[in-house]
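About this split. The held-out portion is used to measure sequence recovery: a designer receives only the structure tokens and must propose an amino acid at every position. Recovery is the fraction of positions where the proposal matches the reference. Here is one held-out target exactly as it appears in the evaluation file.
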């Protein structure tokens, strides 16, 4: 279990600290033979909310046995399809471990921070959307300042900030997978048929 841990994307050691933090969790998932679902939440229609899909895009090549990656720029997981995605995961996998990745808003001094903890994400909470909690472990990146008109804040978030956070998260997660699972095991044993999740 990961207690709330905060990493600053400006710190040159943050990638390796995230790697080590996640590796401790992932090694237990592997030992228990659980499928690891990396669920990248957000939409490419809003700069501030594009963190999840950007991380998903950066990790698209990360094919490993027992790892499933959902959510990228082409096929984002967002408010309109997340319930369908969760239902699909539940019916396709037995006791999967879900790492949920999403953007969040916070105080000005915390912008650029990445928070990892063993608790679910509440997607859409900044927009007052009533969606189910997601994940056994959450990775959130604080992309901008919370307050009033949060929809406008997300729309006007700097892409540079979001890209920088996405880069640190994706590299830390990638290195944790390599550290715990190695560079082989490139076959997904049970691919998830997700076409119906993204139906228009």
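Reference sequence for scoring:
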């Amino acid at each position: 279990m990961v207690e709330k841990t905060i990493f600053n994307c400006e710190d040159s050691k943050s990638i390796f600290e995230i790697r080590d933090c996640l590796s401790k969790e992932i090694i237990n998932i592997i030992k228990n033979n659980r499928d690891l679902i990396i669920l990248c939440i957000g939409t490419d229609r809003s700069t501030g909310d594009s963190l999840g899909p950007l991380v998903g895009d950066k990790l698209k090549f990360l094919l490993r046995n027992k790892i499933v990656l959902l959510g990228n720029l082409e096929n984002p997981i967002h408010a309109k399809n997340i319930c369908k995605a969760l239902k699909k995961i539940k019916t396709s996998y037995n006791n999967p471990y879900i790492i949920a990745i999403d953007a969040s808003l916070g105080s000005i001094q915390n912008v650029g921070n990445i928070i990892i903890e063993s608790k679910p994400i509440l997607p859409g909470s900044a927009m007052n959307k009533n969606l189910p909690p997601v994940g056994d472990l959450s990775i959130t990146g604080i992309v901008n300042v919370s307050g009033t008109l949060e929809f406008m804040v997300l729309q006007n978030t700097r892409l540079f900030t979001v890209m920088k956070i996405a880069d640190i998260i994706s590299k830390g997660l990638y290195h944790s997978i390599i550290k715990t699972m190695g560079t082989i095991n490139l076959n997904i044993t049970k691919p998830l048929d997700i076409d119906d999740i993204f139906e228009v």
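Annotator remark: Residues 47 and 155 are 6 Å apart (CA to CA).
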